[in-house]
Automatic annotation (TrEMBL), chain B:
Role summary: Catalyzes the transfer of a farnesyl moiety from farnesyl diphosphate to a cysteine at the fourth position from the C-terminus of several proteins. The beta subunit is responsible for peptide-binding. Essential subunit of the farnesyltransferase complex. Catalyzes the transfer of a farnesyl moiety from farnesyl diphosphate to a cysteine at the fourth position from the C-terminus of several proteins having the C-terminal sequence Cys-aliphatic-aliphatic-X.
Reaction it catalyzes: L-cysteinyl-[protein] + (2E,6E)-farnesyl diphosphate = S-(2E,6E)-farnesyl-L-cysteinyl-[protein] + diphosphate
Keyword Amino-acid biosynthesis included in the entry's annotation: no
Pfam families: Prenyltrans
KW Endoplasmic reticulum (keyword) present: no
Record's keyword terms, sorted: Lipid metabolism, Metal-binding, Phosphoprotein, Prenyltransferase, Repeat, Transferase, Zinc
Organism expressing this protein natively: Astyanax mexicanus (Blind cave fish)
UniProt-listed InterPro entries: FTB (IPR026872), PGGT1B-like (IPR045089), Prenyltrans (IPR001330), Terpenoid_cyclase/PrenylTrfase (IPR008930)
Residue ranges annotated for the Prenyltransferase alpha-alpha toroid domain, each copy included: 60-390
Stated name of the protein: Protein farnesyltransferase subunit beta
Gene Ontology BP terms: cardiac ventricle development; lipid metabolic process; prenylation
Amino acid sequence: MSAVEEMENTSNSVLEEPEEEKGSSEYVEGEADMEEDEPVRGGYLFYRDRKEWADLEPVPQDDGPNPVVKIAYSDRFTDVYDYFRALLKNDEKSDRAFALTAEAIDLNAANYTVWHYRRILLQALEKDLREEMIYITAIIEDQPKNYQVWHHRRMVVEWLNDPSDELQFIAEILSQDAKNYHAWQHRQWVIQEYNLWDGELEYVEELLEEDVRNNSAWNQRHYVISHTTTYSPPEILEREVQYSIKQIKKAPHNESAWNYLKGILQAKGLSSYPGLLEQVEELRETYCSPYLLGFLVDYYEDALETNNNKYNQTETLNKALELCELLAQEKDTIRREYWRYVARSLQSKYGSGEISSPSSSNPTPMEQQETPSSD
Amino acid sequence: MESQSPPPPLRCFSDSHQSELFRDDGVQTVTSAEQRKVERSIQDVLTVYQQIHSLPQPTLLREQHYQYLKKGLRHLSDAYECLDASRPWLCYWILHSLELLEEPVPAAVASDVCQFLARCQSPTGGFAGGPGQHAHLAPTYAAVNALCILGTEEAYNVINREKLLDFLYSVKQPDGSFVMHVGGEVDVRSAYCAASVASLTNIITPTLFEGTHNWIISCQNWEGGLGGVPGLEAHGGYTFCGTAALVILGKEHMLDLKALLRWVTSRQMRFEGGFQGRCNKLVDGCYSFWQAGLLPLLHRALFKDGDMTLSLSSWMFEQQALQEYILLCCQNPAGGLLDKPGKSRDFYHTCYCLSGLSVAQHFGNKDLHHELILGKEENRLAPTHPVYNICPEKVAQAIQYFHQLPIPAQNGEPACAEDQS
């Protein structure tokens, strides 16, 4: 059978087995008593059977005559969204519309059109925003990895101009998943918007106590310090360097700690920090890791770059090249191609016995106005 | 009988592979516990594989993936209700997967996709997650990509370029960023979606991306990668979006490329072979594209910069290891690909695992091309464009088509009007 024929035979093919992520709605569809108009006690009544909705004509989805990626919606889903589309079409702003948005959200919390409409209703109907906070809190607890729910919360907090519950709420979410990206995003926004920097460094330290490998917490550390004391004061930088080294000693194979150490020193240049090389070389014996070796490469590269007269350029270059080869061959083979490139770059830039003049480490930014071309 | 040379040894079966297991230094935390769990499950997969196959020849389950994709393009179970606001994505994920597998889409189906996406287009411009929904940059990106994959005049003509430009202006922010939809959130994905569709359909005006590159650059952090918004942790998906957007805008050199290179190469997992999305998090098949896909972009950027030390045969990541991870750990035997062993298949992971496999198989461009196909030759996929993630021919064809058309005037004003504000 050719591909064409196979394709054409799919029209009424067997629907997929629910192997995919995210199971369908758990709601047990009660059998509505179709002969009665009154709500059936204990059962679920479709909107199409509700008397108080009889004035509204449901709007079926316009998928066209030959739909693609056609989802086998449950009856409940179809019913709710047929009525949502009707409300949208009439631009109805009522309490029943507001209630329906909650049902539509329950069926698909990623439907940003519904959220948008709910926000319009919140304002038009002057709904109690405190109630809305309670609502959105529950939704986020249930679906913390959804974009829309966090954005909605942000809007309500802005309208209320009240962030007082936020840090505690976010901490609660983070206690369940300490790396939830949306949670961290919301946290950074709240802190910056409402100037709630106090106590955040302490919070970060708590998280790092629990899991020194929590890279999100390390990032938050950098965020707080950058926006408060900054790393400019020598005593701050020293404190952070010592903090990093302390954490490295606890878990030498924790990449986050090494990245942080490099991250905070690279602005001024790794080789400009006195005693650092010695400290790291000391660590090499007991606390060695591919990250330590990589850090040394960065150190030597910076030394070459700044042409620090403390060091013999050739010796430094050779040490760097040796480390690159050690990493490529043995200690970090997954990155072999990368370390070999670094070696070639260093060789090209500082090698052949030439004393290279200090050059900026970044290429001159070139404004390239190129039509995107296929590679 | 022909003597066949044995297939090259797999990295994951080498003697030294065990030494790549995560070292927790005797300090167990949630991070290390989770990592070790994954490594154990990978080990199980590899052990089973070795027992079944005396000669390791990883095989891409083409036929099974094809059936899964073919069916999905028409019908999806109610498990997909959660993607009811992402149906152009489903079109793109499936169509791109099919094009990587070099499976043709029959003309009738192609036409049906066009008509469906036309129904997803908003009267105010841009595409929505489904008919009757509001326009959003993500389904806009997906719809335009899907239409470019189809590549027919019917497909190209679905796009209302004038309204699309209006939509892009309607989500543009004063600081150079874009919200994902009117009344929606800002993050770096939006810049990529906007840059992608605008460049493909030739609607870039002098003011459209004013300030955008500066905003994207501010997303690069102390780790070397990019976060979703300035201040956030570096993350593979956002890093790809920001970098690819900058490439489109011709401003990739404003990034600290060396720091970015260090960050992304560090994201390849020494044991699993696949990529993680963030430091100290778990491997996931989709990062095969978001992360590994950065290497072609960086290679090109460094090359344009005059770098003479770049390899002429490989990207700066372990291509074989990534292919091993995808082929051995990310395939569902009934078709479809996935995040990691134990997870369910889905079309998103199918798209990005295959896209990553393609990146790992193909080095260079049409002028200088070097292939590394793990397993049988039949595992070979079509190459993909590292900026748009559709096949390079489709990119070229779309650009050629739309560049014949004039850039629309903004808000119905004549194109030559000087005042664009």
